[in-house]
Amino acid sequence: MLARTEEILSLARSRTPADRERLLLAVVELCDVAESAQVMSAPAVQDLLNSIFMSLVVEAERDIRRRLAEKLAHVDWAPAALINVLALDDIEIARPIIASSPLLDDQDLVRLLIEATIEHQIEVARRPGLASPVVSAILQQGEPAVLTALAGNVQTALGPEDMALLVKAARRVAALRSPLVRRPELTDDLALQLYVWVGQALRQALTTRFRLDPAALEAALGQAVGETHAGAPGADPTADAIVWEQDGEREEMERRLISKLVAAGQLRPGYLLRALREGKLSLFAGALATLGDFPPDMVRRALDGEQPEHLALACAAVGIDRSAFPTILELVRELNGGQPGGGGEGTRRALAAFGPFAPDLAAMAFRRTMTPKAG
Fold first, then answer.
1. What b/e sequence results for 93-121 when a residue is b if at least 16 CB atoms lie within 10 Å of its CB, and e otherwise?
2. What gap in Å lies between CA 339 and CA 288, rounded to an integer?
3. What is the pTM of this model?
4. What are phi and psi of 299, to 5 degrees?
5. Per-residue CA distances from 343 to 104, 205, 308 (Å)
6. Of the candidates 296, 311, 367, 300, which has an alpha carbon nearest to the alpha carbon of residue 342?
7. What would the DSSP string read from start to end of 305-325?
8. How many Å separate Cα 39 from the centre of its chain?
């Protein structure tokens, strides 16, 4: 250990870029050894870490910073300033720090919610065991993708007021509905409110879990429809009235948005993932159909079927990377009542659609597969 420390000190005196990279790698290796030897609290080691980490990390290559973040994500001896710097780095670097670092306190997490990107905010909302101030900050900001991540975070307990706010938000944010149905804190009264906004599969789940009174359900549905058409007092003016999947007005707005994106040259494959993270399944479907020049009903059948490889073919056809598809499939299932089905085995089959062939061949295969057979 002493010899290694002397080597690190020698590298620290050099100002060449190569030696600076070697120095940071050596410190990462030292972290491994020191952690297993339980010497991280030694004053000499702490002085060494504090003197070189901050100056090195800003100069390091992205891959080096990522490896450093992975090493430091679970330790309690790293410099707090370094942990906060890494938490604000590119999301692939920040993710393990935000998810696990014991050195991030509530104030740090709230600051990330205010200052960092949506991707960072989503990771904060997924962090296990969030305290009440952090949950309150998420609810106050009301960002749909972050609310959805919080609703799916079963390792964070939500209070009655938190659940009430999320159920209210589910009126306008479709992605919230499926995770809220599975929350252990969901009460009979909140389940009845949520029932009005969810699709058939989730309604069945709510009815089975809570044994909801059919008369109460019909009354709730009737009241919601009446408020929608009459603009009754008490209806939420900022929420979509009833967000049915085939709501004509909403879909017309989405068609106009897609047309504007096409005209501006901004409709790209990456937009599909953004639409899903914002809880907009029908926008995802419309954008996928437009990018691939597919009939919309083909895309809809791929989303609602039992074979995720059909959706994979459509994604491969428009240039979605194979590595991004599992995330896309997970988000689609969350928004679409678990469809397309197939489970883990279906996911593995679907990845085969991203084979060594051109996107136009994937498009041809998708159209052929989704075209109803005569007779």
1. bbbbbbebbebbeeebbbbbbeebeebbb
2. 17
3. 0.58
4. -65, -40
5. 35, 18, 9
6. 311
7. SS-HHHHHHHHHHTT--GGGH
8. 37
Per-chain mean pLDDT for the chain? 80
Say which residue the tokens 């597969």 belong to: 369
Residue 74 tokens, joined: 């679970």
CA distance 217 to 202: 14
The string of pLDDT tens digits covering residues 220-262 is 566 555 554 444 444 443 333 333 333 455 677 788 889 988 8
* 290 neighbors 267 (Cβ within 8 angstroms): yes
d(CA 303, CA 339): 6
Pairwise CA distance, residues 56 & 22, whole Å: 10
Give the C-alpha separation, 14 to 149, whole Å. 45
Pairwise CA distance, residues 341 & 337, whole Å: 9
Nearest to 221 by CA among 201, 203, 209: 203
Amino acid at 368: R
Q: What tokens were used for 69?
A: 């973040």
Task: Give the number of other CB atoms < 10 A from CB of residue 196.
Answer: 17
